[in-house]
Amino acid sequence: MLIASQLEPTYARTVYPCFDEPAMKATFNIRIVHDPSYVALSNMPAIDVSEMKDENGSLWTVTTFNTSLKMSTYLTAFVICDFDYVTRTERGNEIRIWARKEAVKNGYVDYALNITGPIFSFLEDLLNVSYPLPKTDLVALPDFGAGAMENWGLMTFQESSLMYQPSDKFTSRKAMIAIIVSHELGHQWFGNLVTMNWWNDLWLNEGLASYFEYLGAIFVEPKLSLDKIFYDHVVQPVLREDNERGVRSLSETEEKIKGSFSLISLFDSITYSKSYLKEFSFSNANQDDLWTHIQMVVDAQNEVQLPASVKQIMDSWTCQNGFPVLTLNLTTGTISQEQFLNKKNENSPDSYNNTWIIPISWMRSGSSQPLMWLDKSSKVFPEMQVSESEYDWVLLNVNLNGYYRVNYDQLNLKRLARLLENDPKAIPAVSRFQLIDDVFALTQFGYIQIETALELTKYLAREDELFIWNMVLLNLVPENLESTLKNYEVYPLLKKYLLKRMLPIYHYYAGFIRQNVDALEDDYFAQVYLEKLFATACWLGLQDCLNLSSELYAKWMDNPEYKIPFLIRRTVCCYGVAMGSDKEWNFAWEMYNRTDSTKEDKDILLSAMSCAKESWLLYRYLQYGLSDTLFSSNYTSIIILYAVTKDIGYRMAWEFVTENWPLLSERYGKQPALDCLYFCGFLAYSSTSMFKP
């Protein structure tokens, strides 16, 4: 049994009577009466543990906690558990990491303990504000919907966000834990010590914590290229989401919005946070308070000259929805801005009159240029006019320092494409990532033609960065590989275009897989994106990829204790089954039913068994899915959905669902069964791709 609270945003009122508003801060005296075999935790240290009897004579433990600091209701917290903990003290702050007893015994929370203290000290030194509590508990919960929560002095996490198995050599898990722990520790200052006045400025909590999470993670894991990870995981996904008409502006949001921070990083100094934190400690602030403090820093120096007040600049970003696209004409040196909207959407207005005050970092023919500002809808920059020479090129928004997309004219795009083919490293990796992401987004939204975007990808045989390849594949290859085979026009084009360009990076990594996969233990992007690269190579029919999958799968069949490299395990299992016969399929089934299979193993095998290329095997698998003795009923739909995405499976799944309709609708109820039927029918008669005529 376990009890844990999650009171953000408005659930404190369901636990105790209160004015449940972030600005109404108070001190809290908490006492918990609980079963004696459990321990009770709250924001502050326990100051008394006593016993009491209830009217039935049963014995209970009463744990009383010290009075809290002045804080918001949503940060009060309690956990009642029978967990164990590991502990160490950092600068007088007692840090305890709690988890299930066997997880603690196996050392799964040691990594979290090793990094929490150093990140605390790093943030204290950076912000010049001491952490005000005498203790900090971090609790790993087996089931927790919020992911992680920054309750002051009692942070809660999903187990997967806090646990690291010492046997796991790869850094991607460590990176994720370091980022999540840093994020929640950042909140101890931004959110807990200084809290937004109300939820419409939630980004003051979340944006700042999202920024500092990367600084803290880089501090404890210096080998990680977290600048690339930040743009790949934070900025790029937000640029993808923040371009629809209905997306609200940052300062109106009542959900957690992340990624605004590419703006503030422009000031290149975090001295503002020190004065801001000191003035608003134990109270509340809104975004204008933050701008006032940054303005004070700007006014006290001469290096940074701004075209307007900090408030005017920042309001243009936080009080308007969406973000701009800059259109560049290099013959005249003119840059214009408009809101980035889907021109293919008939309901989309021609444009809003939104304008932003935009910092433009840029380089010309390889050398960095002084920062420029675009503070109106259009402006001429004479220094951006290029000469006749094809070696004279301009690159805006270097390393994605600003929150906008760039639409270059044909002249500059041709020059950039040529540069990439001759010397890709002349453009920094994050800028190559952004260039390609921008052209695909511009294609998707009707600003440019797909041919223009493909010009910039011709160089890819020379691209050795996996995070850039991953973004290319996300744009060119649909998420569900198999379902596109139904779009027969596209497949041969993709095969011809992509395969020859993928060969160098594929062979580079295939060498490690065959000879020394442990050498990739510090290659974060190999751990998160190699699977996609290999899955695409196999899907496009690269013989070496198919052979490698068969070899590794056969090795596993010979010795079930052998571990297929986890970086490409899903692909190997799928193509091992696909390239084999009933023998390979039956082995997957046997492994699935092994009692020591983990949930992840089972999920991989469940998917792999649907990769069978022989119709009778796939049909038998669908039949197995109906059996209540072989599977629990919630797996039936999963198996059908796996089958429906396969080239030979989509019509079979459709027929199977219609044949077994009475049973399915009885088992699931009419609506879920109808959803499944609709989905199968939809997939059976459609497909998705950027190239769809």
UniProtKB/TrEMBL annotation:
Domain named ERAP1-like C-terminal is located at 393-671
Q: Where is this site: Transition state stabilizer?
A: 272
Bilayer topology reads: Single-pass type II membrane protein
Every Aminopeptidase N-like N-terminal domain range: 2-75
What is the cofactor note? Binds 1 zinc ion per subunit.
CDD domains xref list: M1_APN-Q_like
List keywords of the entry alphabetically: Glycoprotein, Hydrolase, Membrane, Metal-binding, Metalloprotease, Protease, Signal-anchor, Transmembrane, Transmembrane helix, Zinc
Q: Which GO terms describe its molecular function?
A: metalloaminopeptidase activity; peptide binding; zinc ion binding
Catalytic positions are 184 (proton acceptor)
Task: Please give a single GO biological process term from the UniProt record.
Answer: peptide catabolic process
Q: Does the keyword Glycoprotein apply?
A: yes
Say if the entry is tagged with keyword Cell membrane.
no
Domain named Peptidase M1 membrane alanine aminopeptidase is located at 111-275
* A Pfam family: Peptidase_M1_N
Identify the stretch annotated as signal peptide in this record: none
Sites where the protein binds Zn(2+) = 183, 187, 206
What the record says about family reads: Belongs to the peptidase M1 family.
What is the recorded name of this protein?
A: Laeverin
Q: What is the lineage of its organism?
A: Eukaryota, Metazoa, Chordata, Craniata, Vertebrata
